[in-house]
């Protein structure tokens, strides 16, 4: 049966046999065919344009097959590319560079110490303001840095002293006592 | 179902360089199925149809720039499709003659279809159509399946409407006879 009644009526005037038939096609079309067709045709048009362009310039080239004549090596271990040969040097240079930049940045950030402040500092007042425990802990921590004066007490020889006194004149003894006071 | 622009708008798009691609795509999407089935009914095989249809669409791309609207776009495209298909059939026939093949092979192609069923009327109709002369097949298909008016068919095939009508009627009677006798 046709949707167009004119065509259906025309067929029925030829023979009532056509009433039994439907105008449908039994053939199948691959899935997505009509969705993909336009893209395929556009690719063909481009290909044809390339061919036509070459044909107008150098037609001989169109007669040469566009097959790849080169072959890939079969199962041969790949040699290291030259770039890897220099990689270790590149890494070393990079490391040195990083270190140099880090040092430079670190040094540029260290605060400049104002040593002149020590000259005006009142050390006695500073020491008095510190607690004993603070001073002791400082001494413990810096024991090796603190140089203690070597105080040695000479042995006192009683006999020698007595003989010295006996030998000294009264005048000398009086002068000594006065100078000691 | 996708909505399509009218032919005049599509042609206007094609004529403008910035919308040329869009116009062509619109034309292809609008008419590709109709053209496909027009060719497939003559060639039966999908692969052959695909080859011819691609050639037709390339010719349409190449010819659209010079298309004059003194004929309908659809009729112009149908003419290209018909000529390309008939040329393809001629080439196949020559090849078959060289290889001493018997017949044009279309009946065999129908029977080779994966969903072919000789007991179904719809398949009997396909076999019957393929037993007609080429021109009668063409007229019958355009009228029966494409429901094309005679005046449009006349423009397409450059034959008088009266002759086409007579051809269609003769074809319909022959088909009926073939189906009834098998």
How would you sum up this structure, described in words?
The complex is a heterodimer of chains A (181) and B (182). By secondary structure, chain A is mostly helical. Chain A is built from ten helices and no strands. The radius of gyration of chain A is 57 Å and the shape is rod-shaped. The N and C termini of chain A lie far apart (150 Å). Chain B has 182 residues and is mainly α. Chain B folds into two domains: 1-104, RNA polymerase sigma factor, region 2, helix turn helix motif (Rna Polymerase Sigma Factor, Chain: A, Orthogonal Bundle); 106-182, Arc Repressor Mutant, subunit A, CATH 1.10.10.10. Chain B is built from nine helices and no strands. In chain B, helix 3 packs across helix 4 (73-98), helix 4 (73-98) crosses helix 8 and helix 8 crosses helix 9 (161-181).
Characterize this entry briefly:
By secondary structure, chain A is mainly α.
Task: Note the topology.
The complex is a heterodimer of chains A (181) and B (182).
Chain A: H1 5-14, H2 33-57, H3 59-62, H4 82-85, H5 87-109, H6 116-120, H7 123-129, H8 132-141, H9 158-167, H10 170-180
Chain B: H1 7-15, H2 20-43, H3 46-63, H4 73-98, H5 106-111, H6 121-130, H7 134-144, H8 150-157, H9 161-181
Helix pairs in contact in B: 1-2, 2-3, 2-4, 3-4, 4-8, 6-9, 7-9, 8-9
């Amino acid at each position: 049966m046709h949707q167009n009644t004119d065509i259906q009526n025309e067929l029925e005037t030829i023979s009532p046999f056509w009433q039994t038939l439907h105008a449908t096609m039994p053939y199948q079309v691959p899935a997505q065919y009509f969705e993909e067709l336009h893209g395929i045709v556009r690719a063909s048009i481009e290909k044809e344009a390339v061919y036509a362009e070459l044909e107008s310039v150098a037609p001989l080239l169109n007669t040469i097959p566009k097959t790849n004549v080169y072959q890939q090596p079969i199962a041969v271990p790949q040699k290291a590319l030259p770039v890897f040969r220099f990689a270790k040097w590149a890494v070393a240079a990079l490391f040195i560079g990083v270190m140099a930049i880090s040092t430079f940045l670190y040094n540029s950030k260290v605060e400049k110490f104002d040593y002149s402040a020590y000259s005006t500092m009142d050390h006695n007042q500073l020491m008095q303001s510190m607690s004993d425990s603070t001073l002791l802990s400082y001494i413990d921590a810096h024991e090796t840095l603190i140089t203690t004066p070597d105080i040695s007490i000479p042995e006192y020889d009683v006999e020698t002293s007595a003989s010295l006194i006996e030998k000294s004149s009264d005048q000398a003894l009086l002068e000594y006592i006065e100078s000691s006071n | 179902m996708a909505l399509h622009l009218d032919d005049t708008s599509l042609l206007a798009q094609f004529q403008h360089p910035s919308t040329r691609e869009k116009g062509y795509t619109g034309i292809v999407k609008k008419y590709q199925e109709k053209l496909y089935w027009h060719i497939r009914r003559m060639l039966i095989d999908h692969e052959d149809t695909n080859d011819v249809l691609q050639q037709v669409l390339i010719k349409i791309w190449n010819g659209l720039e010079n298309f004059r609207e003194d004929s309908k776009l659809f009729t112009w495209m149908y003419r290209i499709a018909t000529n390309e298909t008939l040329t393809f059939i001629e080439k196949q026939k020559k090849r078959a003659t060289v290889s001493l093949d018997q017949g044009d092979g279309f009946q065999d192609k129908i029977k080779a279809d994966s969903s072919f069923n000789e007991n179904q009327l719809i398949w009997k109709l396909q076999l019957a159509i393929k037993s007609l002369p080429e021109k009668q097949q063409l007229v019958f298909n355009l009228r029966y399946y494409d429901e094309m008016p005679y005046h449009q068919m006349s423009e397409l095939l450059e034959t008088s409407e009266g002759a086409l009508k007579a051809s269609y009627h003769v074809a319909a009677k022959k088909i009926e006879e073939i189906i009834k006798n098998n």
